[in-house]
Amino acid sequence: MRRLLLPLLVVLSEVLFAEAGMLGAAMTLAATAAAGSLLALCALLAARAVPAVPHARVRTAIRDRARRTAFLPQRDPDAAGRPRPRAPGCRPVTAV
Fold first, then answer.
1. What is the DSSP secondary structure assignment for residue 35, as one 8-state letter?
2. What is the DSSP string of 36-94?
3. Rounded distance, CA 82 to CA 78, Å?
4. What is the pTM for the complete model shown?
5. 38-92: per-residue pLDDT in tens?
6. 7, 27, 8: which is closest to 17 by C-alpha?
7. How far apart are CA 32 and CA 87, in angstroms?
């Protein structure tokens, strides 16, 4: 990763320092890059600090969730042989 970023940083620094008055832009870019790197480092350290969950526990959680599910989703409700779901209608009018 460092091999890719170093040439890019050299090219950008030459472009930014080529004109007078671009020092502020270069400092802003450097500060933004430093803040982004620090944020990425913090995210990486936080991700590594989370304990690993065994695969068996993940499978058990998925199975338990499937058992608690009250319905099975239908992928194609219009498939052949499957009745169309209908909304409840009003009661038929009868003679009094």
1. H
2. HHHHHHHHHHHHHHSPPPPHHHHHHHHHHHHHH-SS---S-TT-TTPPPP----PPPP-
3. 7
4. 0.37
5. 999 999 998 888 887 787 888 888 888 888 877 666 677 777 877 776 766 666 6
6. 27
7. 57
